[in-house]
Amino acid sequence: MRTGDDTRTVRAGRRTVRVHRPDKVLFPGGDGTEYTKSDLVDYHRSVGPFMLPHLRGRPLMLQRHPDGIDGCRFMQKNTPDTYPDWVSRVEVPKEGGTVRHTVCDDSATLAAAHPDRLTTAPRKKDRGDRLYLDIGRDAYAQTAVAPYTVRALPGAPVATPIAWSQLDDPGLHARRWTVADAVDQARTDPWAGVMSRGRALGPARRRLDGLRG
After folding, report:
1. Which of 54, 109, 144, 189 places its Cα 20 to 30 Å from the Cα of 158?
2. HSE-CB of 94 using CA atoms within 13 angstroms
3. What is the DSSP string of 44-109?
């Protein structure tokens, strides 16, 4: 529903959310296709049932592009006070204080729960005999990208899970799916059964101990 003050009101689960400047272009496209803030909202409403199982209970760090992908960007860890009260927060320790993340069971939390066995320290000299949880990507402070996350690139490509059978597709590339069709891929359930096939770390730890003699 649109209102006269350039806002759109949408229903998301049990909540009503006001979207300001819904027609603002966030993702320009090289082929003439562009996506607005309203398009991004519609995408997340549709992909929510497939994306939320990978996010629940985990602290989030957001890459913010307030003026679209061609404008300035920054990484947001702390949850702003302007967020609604119903948005969950969690305090995570850091050097010199804490960070109040938006919603948390990431590997840093797991390491904190088992500091004698696990660590996320990137430098070998800081790990000791602990098992390293490698969650890093390409640059400092970058963490894992959640499935179905929209990437800050022209055309609004989406980090989309695929099935083994799709690996041989000659048309497969990193920008294969966008906010326009990623939900169709999600509905095929490409990772069917993955969430129920967790593996214990015990056997891997014993093999590592064996290699050390």
Report:
1. 109
2. 10
3. HHHHHHHHHHHHTT--B-EEE-TT-TTS--EEE-SPPTTS-TTS-EEEEEETTEEEEEE----HHH
pLDDT per residue as tens digits for the range 90-100: 887 777 788 88
- For the entire predicted model, the pTM comes to 0.74
**Among the listed residues 80, 111, 75, 76, the one whose alpha carbon sits nearest the alpha carbon of residue 93:** 111
For 3, 76, 160, 205, the CA distances from 69, given in Å and listed in that order, are: 26, 15, 20, 42
Contact 73, 156 (CB under 8 A): no
Structure-token pair, residue 101: 């993340």
pLDDT at 114: 54
For 117-149, the pLDDT digits (tens) are 778 777 888 888 887 877 666 666 667 788 999
Within 10 angstroms of residue 141's Cβ, the number of other Cβ atoms is 9
Query: Mean pLDDT throughout 33-54?
Result: 89
The closest alpha carbon to 73, from 83, 81, 82, 64, belongs to 64
Residue 207: both structure tokens together: 């093999």
Segment 190-210 mean pLDDT: 81
Q: Where are the alpha helices (DSSP H) in 125-176?
A: none
CA distance 50 to 201: 27
Query: Do residues 88 and 73 lie in contact, with contact meaning Cβ atoms separated by under 8 Å?
Result: no
Separation of alpha carbons 183 and 47, rounded Å:
6
